[in-house]
Request: fold
Amino acid sequence: MDGYRSCFATLYMALKLNRSIDLQILHFNDRFVDLLLTLNPLLAPTYGITRYPDRVFSVSRTAHVQFFKGLLYLRTQVDKLAESLLTKKQKEEVKFLKSAIERSLVREGIPGDVGFVLELGNKLSELAMLEYWFSLQPTKTGQDLINHNTRLLLLPAQFTHMIENFNLGIKRQATLTKRCTELLIKTVHGLCRPDLPITQAAKLSGLNREKEAKDLLGSPDFFVPALVEVVQSLRGIKVYLETIYIQNARDMDGIGGIPGAEDAYRRYIYEFTDSYTSADEFHALGIAEVERIQKELEDVKEQCGYRGSLAQFQRDLMDRSKYPQLFLRTKKEVVEYCENVVKRNKEMMAGFFDEFPTLELSGVLVLAAEKFTNLSISCRVEAVAPELESQRPIASYYSGTDTTHHHQGTLANANKSNHVIRKIMMSEPYLDGWALYSEYLGKEMGVYETPFEVFGKLTMEMLRACRLVVDTGMHAKGWSVEEAVDIWGVKLPCQRRKLKAK
Reply:
């Protein structure tokens, strides 16, 4: 009997310890998410989090230093936990959290001293996404609107910090390129409308909630005073960019022109790949991939019955008179074609997958149809020769979307046992690696019915391989945009201005 008691006591203590470790992991995950959302609480509603109803993003050096120190402390705590006796699931959770912390630390560097998170950061997204981020916030109650007004009043201080960061970039010789600066000026111009009287610009702002203010507060102009301050601050940023910053913006298109560029690019590589693979290694990998895909494109071109050059074949595919069977003419035809592709894919997937998302892909089909603004180029042609920026190749988009980003992403987001950290810090290599694998799986499944569709799959592979060559070429080898476009244009059937934009 004593032996049984001892056994049960040991089991009880083991379960209690296991529960304690689970709670620690949960606490550390919560703390990490809190740290992230401190920098941009406007993203909280995206993940169903309501703890920051009246706050905006923080771009100050002080905020980033606090974030950096918080990550360092959290890392020491998680490292200690990792030394405990963990179950397989707990090891996976701790490994994911450690990776998330490391990626964030690498991105941050030491704000203002190592790395360029303040000086370069995401200036375009912080301003270009401003109206979208505010659109995510609730406006259903009077308190929601008061919170909205509070957030508006906090924006001018953050715009001041942006200028401080720009000045720090000038001091450290780490500025945006002239091209990016010009784009940023256009973005700010659209936000502050300097061609209009300031009160009118405030009323027309995408941040205004005139209807909600009228319905819930009885005052349609409730937000105008706060918006006047916002618009005034944005106009100050525009003047600063036009008169001071652009004079110091760098001419070199890649980041190679800034001090410490090699280390900065190494940080960017790790942030998006979870790997310390060197730029030279990635460049060589990209070149090897381009050569491999080029050979496969040549083979598939012959399977399509074409005897001319690959470049001429790619041009001919854009000609309706030469390949009329590849063109769809109306939105209805596009939707029907896409629905058939998705239906066929799903039937084939039944032999490869055990679990399927409850959310169907119909919404994506409607969205895709809306994107076909120029129906003189069909989705089938897009599958073999991407041309219009607003369109996606059906062959890879639908096999890829249904079996990868839609299939995997929807299942992951619907998994209630996953902590929200897995939604916020999804691994880029995993997401896109899974998508690339699924394009290969599509061939194994028989998704591609004609060599033209296989050609489309390979064309998208070529796009990604060229991106690898061009990205490393511009940022690690000093290529200009023009040089990158020259190299890219040889491999892809796309207008020069489209390549330049990419």
Notes: The CA atoms of residues 368 and 421 lie 30 Å apart.
